[in-house]
Amino acid sequence: MSTSRRTFMAAAATLGTTIAAATTAGAATAVNTYPKLVHHVFFWLKNPASKEDLSKLLAGLRTLTAIETVRGAHFGVPASTEKRDVVDNSYSASEILFFDDLAGQKIYQDHPVHKKFVADCSHLWERVVVYDAVSA
Amino acid sequence: MSTSRRTFMAAAATLGTTIAAATTAGAATAVNTYPKLVHHVFFWLKNPASKEDLSKLLAGLRTLTAIETVRGAHFGVPASTEKRDVVDNSYSASEILFFDDLAGQKIYQDHPVHKKFVADCSHLWERVVVYDAVSA
Q: Do A102 and B109 touch (CB under 8 A)?
């Protein structure tokens, strides 16, 4: 295990996640190096060719990290990985937020910062799909 | 910012991710606290009621963390967050892997450990959807 990976896992541990240490050399190591609950939202813009609309949406998304229960964030756009039948790259923007638990996600959902984001940006998108997953 | 959050962000920085420091108190802070490329896969089991099949799939997924370019992992099942029209909780299992870049994801895709996972577990699922997102 590299030093950076070890440091990262140690930090993840401070966030209360579960770390399964390697028991044998070469075995699968960390199972969950991130907080327990992940909230992944995909947005399809009404005007997918508008760089301005994408920029506004991404700026709106970045405000969400101010919510105190957000433990980590990744905001992105479709990656230019290999095109395969199973890959959906039709969306405009991706929002991943990590929470410690359901309570943290609920606080986010009802938070004024989240409501302001929806009020300011919902005219930009035509479709949203949300996946919430808990560590298993 | 709490100590744990600061520690976490410092560790994320060692992984080469971009950290945008807060410029004003209370402003949105870290934009990308995770490696650049996220690979999120959702699996729908042929037998969604089978705990044994889910267990086999999750065990298979955990082997993927042995691939050297995997920078972080979260394996999960649908969370019991509030049911809303936009939430898709129909899947059986969720796999999130983080990579530094496209090259890292490509090494994973072609890696013998990944191929063994597909060979061992693909009979379990009837549908897979993949989303690859790059930080923006």
A: no
pLDDT(B11) > 70 = no
Which residues of chain A are within 8 Å of residue B22 when distances are taken between CB atoms? none
Dmax over CA atoms of chain A, in Å, equals 52
Residues 74-133 on B with a CB inside 8 Å of A are 74-82, 84, 86-89, 91, 93-94, 96, 98, 102, 105-106, 109, 128-133
Q: Go through B37-69 and write b for each residue having 16 or more CB atoms within 10 A of its CB, e for each that does not.
A: bbbbbbbebeeeeeeebbebbbebbbbbbebeb
How far is it, in rounded angstroms, from Cα A54 to Cα A43? 10
Residue range B54-80, pLDDT digits in tens = 999 999 999 999 999 999 999 999 999
* Confidence check: pLDDT of B52 > 70: yes
Of A27, A32, A133, the CB nearest to B79: A133
